[in-house]
């Protein structure tokens, strides 16, 4: 089996998982601290999706740490197949949440001017949270791509 950058059980894979977990957690933290996020379904979906992303990335991060610490091989058919399915599912959900939230922000800013009129909405914080969500998705897309090639090389 090939040793690719970001594959499970390698330091590069651990760095990708840490980046995914931190950016998803930052997205949750910024969105949850913004006032008025609960009035929009897309923002609530973003928090739920990023919560799943944090759990998935944290679990795989712990598995990578265990594999690095005890020199275990994570390149078995079952484990890599599980990683592929989990990465693709969470990547799809994360992209959908980030895109829907970005669409709502475009509606708020350009079409309705709600951000200029309603002082109870923290539109700048919404945008920062969405940027963190896209960063998390980008790192997850890299992991998903690597897992796809690992499963193809088995």
TrEMBL record:
Alphabetic keyword roster: Cell membrane, Membrane, Transmembrane, Transmembrane helix
Location in or out of the cell: Cell membrane
Membrane topology qualifier: Multi-pass membrane protein
Any coiled-coil regions, as ranges: none
GO cellular component annotations of the record: plasma membrane
TM region(s), chain numbering: 21-48, 54-71, 78-108, 128-152
Subunit (UniProt): Homodimer and heterodimers.
Name of this protein: CASP-like protein
Top-level taxonomy: Eukaryota, Viridiplantae, Streptophyta, Embryophyta, Tracheophyta
């Amino acid at each position: 089996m090939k040793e690719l950058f970001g594959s499970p059980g390698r330091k590069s894979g651990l760095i990708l998982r840490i980046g995914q977990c931190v950016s998803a957690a930052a997205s949750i933290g910024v969105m949850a601290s913004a006032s008025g996020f609960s009035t929009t379904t897309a923002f609530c979906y973003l928090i739920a999706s990023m919560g799943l992303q944090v759990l998935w990335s944290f679990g795989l991060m712990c598995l990578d740490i265990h594999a690095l610490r005890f020199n275990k091989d994570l390149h078995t058919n079952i484990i890599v197949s599980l990683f592929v399915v989990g990465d693709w599912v969470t990547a799809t959900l994360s992209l959908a949440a980030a895109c829907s939230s970005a669409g709502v922000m475009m509606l708020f800013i350009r079409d309705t001017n709600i951000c200029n009129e309603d002082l109870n909405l923290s539109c700048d914080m919404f945008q920062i949270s969405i940027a963190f969500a896209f960063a998390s998705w980008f790192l997850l897309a890299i992991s998903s791509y690597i897992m796809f090639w690992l499963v193809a090389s088995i």
